[in-house]
């Protein structure tokens, strides 16, 4: 054998216990095992050859943290900043207050990132990506044989004799230079795969103008046909003269005359207390703040993002001719672009909001 050359030595065994004993004998002579190929896991083999514990769990942790950060940013941008959505009375102006509604989505994205990228890490760590040259030196190790691999410089006579003496049924020696050279595209499979992913992501972008915020994806679902409760297309009508439990009918009509009557004569039936004012503030921050703003100045999130325009300010200089009755009437029936909130708020809750709105006018 020539000096200053590297050789690969393969010892083939037909018994795992014999393999373990042979490895221990080789280690006692100072030989270091490069790799072991087996058709099934061998008990304590990792400890014998000094294989370190896998760090694949760190990949799952890092990927999960990336998923956490991305999901929090995505939900905040879509649901709080870009286009706040009032879904079931969710406080759309605050991410923290809306957190309970976001937790399931954040959790699922964390799991998705952890699982997907952990699997990808596993494949690349074990070189199982497309185009990579097979690493199994002997197909019989997928059936019933066991192979131990050593990499040595110069003389291999001692290790060959040791393997044969310790039960190897076959020993082969290869000169590293005799190995077939791996093609460039096989060496660069990881880089090529990453480039393909990057190209795919970039191709999703376009030079087209940004979407018009008024456009809605799948409008047939967003603007579905709505039926009034107890209409001919819905349920049976209630018995005449009856109302649902806890409901107080509002007898002023939804007309211009009705609005003027509420403006002039409708008075607040609940006391002005600190509790009612606090409740009114909480309800205002859920149902009203997105349009009317935190201070009632008409600068809510939807207005600042130019989703809705023309929201008036509550101040006495801007709206001098409104009263507690007219505010309650508008909350009940809606006005202009504002819809009715009577189905979401009880009469008492509407009056509590009225108290807070009057406080903002001071």
Please give a quick description of this structure.
With 362 residues, this protein is of the alpha+beta class. The protein is 44% helix and 7% strand.
Folded structure, characterized:
The radius of gyration is 37 Å and the shape is rod-shaped. With 362 residues, it is α+β, with helices and mostly antiparallel strands. The chain contains 14 helices and 4 strands.
Query: How many distinct folded domains?
Result: 2
Low-confidence stretches: 181-186
Strand content: 5-15%
Oligomer: single chain
Rough shape?
rod-shaped
Report on the biggest sheet.
4 strands, antiparallel
Cα gyration radius (Å): 37 Å
Number of strands: 4
Order of helices and strands: EHEHHHEHEHHHHHHHHH
Number of helical regions? 14
Helix/strand-derived class?
A: alpha+beta
What's the pLDDT, averaged over the residues?
A: 81
Q: Helix proportion of residues, in percent? A: 40-55%
Which features characterize this protein?
alpha+beta; 2 domains; single chain; 44% helix; 4-stranded antiparallel β-sheet; 14 helices; 362 residues; Cytochrome Bc1 Complex, Chain D, domain 2
